[in-house]
Please model this.
Amino acid sequence: MHIIIPNYITYTECDDLIKYWKIHKQWHYTYNANQSKCLSLHRFSDIDSLTSRVINTCASLENRRIKLSHHAIIKWPKYSSMLPHRDKQDRYSAVLYLNDNFGGGETCLDEYGKLVEVSPVKGSLLVFSNSKHLHWVNEVRKSSRYVVSFWFIDEK
Model:
């Protein structure tokens, strides 16, 4: 099961998060599997209100206590993609789309044999079980794709 919440944040908030990614280049790391550039957000407390909001939203949607494992602003450059996989260490994932002015880059889910292809819409939030469902990202064909990705584990 997946849930999409449209207009989760404003366009201005999306643009500000992309600027935030660009300002903090000294903290970027490259995810070698697809050459995306990540900015881990654990060290930045100035976006804690957004992080708390996403945690609370996801916990209420799933009706369970969850804990943030990791979160990052990620730039997916042109020609990047993610192969189908499951995240065994996590329980849920949330993807906050910061732009939609690119080609491709759809988030795909295999929900019990049914293909779900989510086209990114700026400001929307996608929540899904990344441990249950095979998921991947189609190749970004034009420009760059920016998201904030959140990974959650069950709180013990």
